[in-house]
Amino acid sequence: MDMLNVYKEAYQALKSILFKSDIQELTTIKNRFSKMEKLKEDSYLLAGVRLFNRDCNKGGKGIEDIPVLLTQAIDLTSDELQDTLSYVMANVNILTSALDQSFVPATRGPRLVLDLRISSMVNPADVEYAKDLLVLFRQYEVYVRKMQVEVERLEEEAQDVFDDFQWCLIEIHQCVQYKTAVPASAV
């Protein structure tokens, strides 16, 4: 991307929203807060003009396609979370099967309990370790599933923002369709 072209385009967009009198007025503002607010407003207008030009395929050099980038990031994150969940669930299944064979249901009075029945080759400490590991993987599973829900929520929220942005661009296109100049207050 040629930064010189980006600067030239930004300069042309700036000239389309500010006259020399506007720039002179900006230099006469004494209140720092008011000057910052005016600069902020002008930078929003400049960004809007550049985004509009990008939408019309008449400029917008150097502006990344945020919807595409965000969609790619969400897809990659979702895939990574699904791979992680598959790994976690494989471990949960292995540990559950191993522990399932180590315990036998038994009744003691009115209660149902699990008795540890292991071969002489298995250390009871290893069974405890496997139980702790199973708990860890189950917690990991809950965490990953919560992250998946959050990513889905963010995807919906991002889509809403993109839809609002498209709606704004449509409104601006309708506003400027037959006009050679549009006051900043109309945008």
Automatic annotation (TrEMBL):
GO terms for cellular component: axoneme; ciliary basal body. Pfam families: FAP206. Its main location: cytoplasm. It is found in: Cytoplasm, Cytoskeleton, Cilium axoneme. InterPro entries: FAP206. The keyword Ligase does not apply. GO terms for biological process: cell projection organization; regulation of cilium beat frequency. It comes from the Eukaryota. Keywords: Cell projection, Cilium, Cilium biogenesis/degradation, Coiled coil, Cytoplasm, Cytoskeleton. Residues 137-164 form a coiled coil. Belongs to the CFAP206 family. Essential for sperm motility and is involved in the regulation of the beating frequency of motile cilia on the epithelial cells of the respiratory tract. Required for the establishment of radial spokes in sperm flagella. This is Cilia- and flagella-associated protein 206.
